[in-house]
């Protein structure tokens, strides 16, 4: 049985128009022990100007390491979502994210299949995903980096579909980044689904869903960017924690919410349960 740590996805500072380093320091101030940065390709105005938290993979990966060292906080993983269904993008993006993760000190790279092309068949989609994952795993394995597959799109938005993607490539580097909110919004039982994958977990997105969002979207979407504060919504966190204590490895609950206030309430709620 592994230990559960509390981390936060950097989306919690999305609306504060501050740079990455500021967000890392804020996460530590709130009491989180881990952060999950978002990385991107190329250059874009808001991050370059210091108004957004995302980090370009053209930057020095030691930028991330140094920010965490200054704040005395650790990395749970990188949010490196790229479409597995588009190998012309996904292969090189994931390989770069894995190399970047190894140098900055992040143990996990999280991703999903991405939106489907309108002209491909299901059989073709799974061939494309297998190619992308095999290429990514070949870079991840010698570096000791884990790839977290998240339930988030048309195929992974069901337990059987996520399992099918997971089994496309046999690799010790491939695991599951379970998202409590996405799994709930997909219309499935998140606790039964979590129990199904608990022995394969490498990371967990701790996302709660408000009653209002649940009433409006459950069964109609496959995921959402962020949720509400943990404890303010429909997810039974005591039950989630109980299931995750069966995980054979240490696990970070990376809270996915949209504001600093929600991040503060989330850690307060989860700490009491832990």
Write a structural description.
There is one protein chain. This protein is an alpha/beta fold. It has a single domain, classed as TIM Barrel. The chain is 43% helix and 17% strand. The strands form two sheets. A nine-stranded parallel β-sheet has the order 5-2-1-11-10-9-8-7-6. Strands 3-4 form a two-stranded parallel sheet. α1 (20-30) packs parallel to α3 and α4 (87-104) runs parallel beside α5. The protein is globular. The mean pLDDT is 97.
Largest sheet: 9 strands, parallel
Order of helices and strands: EHEEHEHEEHEHEHEHHEHHEH
Strand order of the largest sheet: 5-2-1-11-10-9-8-7-6
User: What integer is the average pLDDT?
Assistant: 97
Quick one: CATH class?
A: Alpha Beta
By DSSP, the count of extended strands is: 11
Strand % is: 15-25%
Q: Which term fits the overall shape?
A: globular
Radius of gyration, CA atoms, in whole angstroms: 17 Å
CATH topology: TIM Barrel
The unreliable regions are none
Percent helix: 40-55%
Structural class: alpha/beta
CATH H-level superfamily: Divalent-metal-dependent TIM barrel enzymes
